[in-house]
Specification:
Shape: elongated
Helix content: over 70%
Number of helices: 7
Order of helices and strands: HHHHHHH
Strand content: under 5%
Number of strands: 0
């Protein structure tokens, strides 16, 4: 038997032992709706990145926003669905993304310390190279890779529960 709530949710879902309720489906859909509605966020005065993927900083700020969404949803739903596997999946998602929260704050402090009067795209690129070295980029890549299977389980749970409703 699994004791970790995320593992228990994955096991129950894969063994068809858990069919998400309409409330759990609503929670999962609300998460995806809010996450998809997030707008790109830049540091104050940072120019838009010409690359469609955006600045690495934008992604860190997005992860910070995603954690905020999950925390808000969990605060609202945890008491209503205390032993829910959907709660466990969302907690795992937030836990995986949470290291980006203090990192986003660190990047903001570093950016503000520069006191740019104006910043070109080239200067923003240099700033990112200096403040987000390769080791940090690899850590962010690993964090993102860890979000993929958790997100996949959330999608599967919502789809399976939606099909039953």
């Amino acid at each position: 038997m699994t004791t970790h709530p995320f593992d228990a949710a994955v096991t129950a879902l894969s063994r068809n032992a858990w069919l998400p309720t309409s409330e759990e489906v609503a929670l999962g859909k609300d998460f995806f709706h809010r996450r998809e509605g997030l707008r790109r966020r830049l540091l104050p005065g940072m120019p838009a990145c010409p690359d469609p993927q955006g600045w690495v900083t934008e992604h860190v700020l997005w992860l910070e926003d995603v954690v905020g969404i999950v925390d808000t949803l969990l605060a609202a739903w945890r008491g209503y669905l205390p032993d829910s596997h959907m709660i466990a999946l969302l907690e795992a998602y937030a836990h995986q993304a949470r290291p980006a929260v203090p990192y986003a704050a660190d990047l903001l402090r570093a950016w503000e310390a520069e006191a740019f009067e104006s910043c070109s795209v080239e200067e923003a690129g240099w700033w990112e190279e200096w403040h987000i070295p390769e080791t940090e980029r690899q850590a962010l890549d690993a964090l993102n890779q860890g979000l993929i299977p958790i997100g996949a389980m959330l999608v599967t749970a919502v789809e399976r529960g939606s099909a039953a409703v």
